[in-house]
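Example 9 (inverse folding). The structure is encoded as follows.
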């Protein structure tokens, strides 16, 4: 059985709980969620958030990371990637939600294609799809880390800012 690691960067927004509510029922033995709070510019650890997150499930690890700058959880995701133990790693944002059977499907695809990254359709908080229904298309600024699951051995850090990347 393929194990799944979810790296979930956060600044502690209330949407974190909706995101965790969508993930936790789908976890199986060997799965984990690593919540990485962005502590850049903050002087004290958020003990209340740590305690609440860790109380939600024994499969959650809570850490804080100050990268010396902040950019939409990118540095926290990269930090969390180094902590993962699962076979398949998902990058997730604290305002994203997986559908009810997403992990079941990811496990099936990951088992069938263990050496391949898995790209899947997402819907933005505004209702925008990654691509038109039935027409998968890779397009810059339409896909993000939340649209990708990769075998852990393939992990490389996200590179930002995107302005210097190839179109």
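The amino acid assigned to each position is listed next.
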């Amino acid at each position: 059985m393929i194990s799944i690691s979810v790296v979930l960067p956060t600044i502690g927004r209330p949407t974190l709980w909706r995101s965790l509510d969508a993930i936790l029922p789908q976890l199986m033995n060997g799965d984990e969620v690593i919540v990485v709070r962005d502590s850049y510019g903050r002087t004290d650890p958020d003990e209340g958030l740590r305690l609440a997150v860790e109380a939600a499930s024994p499969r959650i690890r809570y850490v804080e990371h100050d990268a010396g700058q902040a950019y939409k959880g990118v540095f926290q995701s990269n930090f969390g990637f180094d902590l993962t133990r699962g076979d398949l790693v998902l990058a997730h944002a604290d305002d994203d939600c997986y559908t009810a059977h997403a992990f079941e499907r990811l496990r099936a695809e990951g088992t069938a294609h263990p050496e391949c990254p898995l790209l899947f359709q997402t819907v933005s908080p505004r209702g925008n799809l990654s691509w038109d229904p039935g027409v998968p298309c890779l397009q810059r600024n339409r896909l993000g880390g939340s649209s990708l699951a990769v075998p852990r051995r393939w992990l490389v850090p996200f590179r930002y800012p995107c302005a210097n990347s190839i179109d």
